[in-house]
Fold each of these.
Amino acid sequence: SQQGEEDPQALSIQEGENATMNCSYKTSINNLQWYRQNSGRGLVHLILIRSNEREKHSGRLRVTLDTSKKSSSLLITASRAADTASYFCATDATGSGNTGKLIFGQGTTLQVKP
Amino acid sequence: NAGVTQTPKFQVLKTGQSMTLQCAQDMNHNSMYWYRQDPGMGLRLIYYSASEGTTDKGEVPNGYNVSRLNKREFSLRLESAAPSQTSVYFCASRLSGRHSYEQYFGPGTRLTVT
């Protein structure tokens, strides 16, 4: 079963605007990761936030994590047309050992219009 | 470095036929994973190999087998393909140290079973 539920399922914004995607999950986690997938391509890792962290930044990306609500958000600031892609959250559940097993959400499809 | 490579890129099978999807990585990673992605959904883990010589079932292993041939290669076999196995298959790898959580993905194999 899918761990993560993401919303919105689809998001369309103008270039320069900010995009926010949300992810909720069900079990305790070691960390939560965000991946990006361009159409017809494999996934690319964007950013990881550990369970003891509340916020993390990487360039134009900002991730927050609220373990009490079992939710995370990904903010992309000053979006560009090249940010058009699908974005997935993935959780590394507590108890998975060092297997690296991830459970992915269903994804948010972001379209950035030039 | 080529990263994670997958062959073939596309495949059409008839129901009942068998085939093997190949995956190789040149990053000296310890762990490797097979996922499937169905339309509008995130990735679901089929099988994984946490280290050379070990393989374990993921979330959706039925109808599949895997072989970790050596540290570089991890193959996925469909013994008797079914239309429900029509999907895009992704292989991924991970270094698997204590601070190495990021997974690296191949470009995918698009499989259609008629």
Amino acid sequence: GENVEQHPSTLSVQEGDSAVIKCTYSDSASNYFPWYKQELGKRPQLIIDIRSNVGEKKDQRIAVTLNKTAKHFSLHITETQPEDSAVYFCAASMAAGNKLTFGGGTRVLVKP
Amino acid sequence: DSGVTQTPKHLITATGQRVTLRCSPRSGDLSVYWYQQSLDQGLQFLIQYYNGEERAKGNILERFSAQQFPDLHSELNLSSLELGDSALYFCASGSGDRETQYFGPGTRLLVL
């Protein structure tokens, strides 16, 4: 089955700096890649997603890039703010309506 | 608020006991997914139902079972509980024909 690896497991950045989280997936049939943000004790919340027919997608301070050939995708957060502190999960899915396979998560701490 | 509801929020029980977790999907969503989140295992897919029928099974123990009712709410039954079953249990819902999944607030299960 699909396997998703996520790095780094923890990331500490200064407020205003950028943060980058990288994920690799194993199954080339995967075609949907969402990113979730989870604050302590809360539900995972979808923050951005990308489909395999797109190489990059932006939404204000966050962007996701996808390299299908290398089977990796990345989350970029620019101008980080303290409220960006959370655990971020990448995931992969093979088709609409299919299960999500998650990476292990990245704990991001934004220091003021 | 994702529109997905879960009850109860917290559950404390003893080893060997049985519990039932409940999930109501967003209005219009036909798919319900159950995920387990433990400290060392991250977010693991358990099982998916679509319009009352089981669609996919993941790493779900034989002691666990689920069903989806005609009104589309779903229940996850956990029996013969062990200490290692302590975790956050999330359900997510989706339309079934699109990839996006929305998570409920979760049920925190503590087995003593």
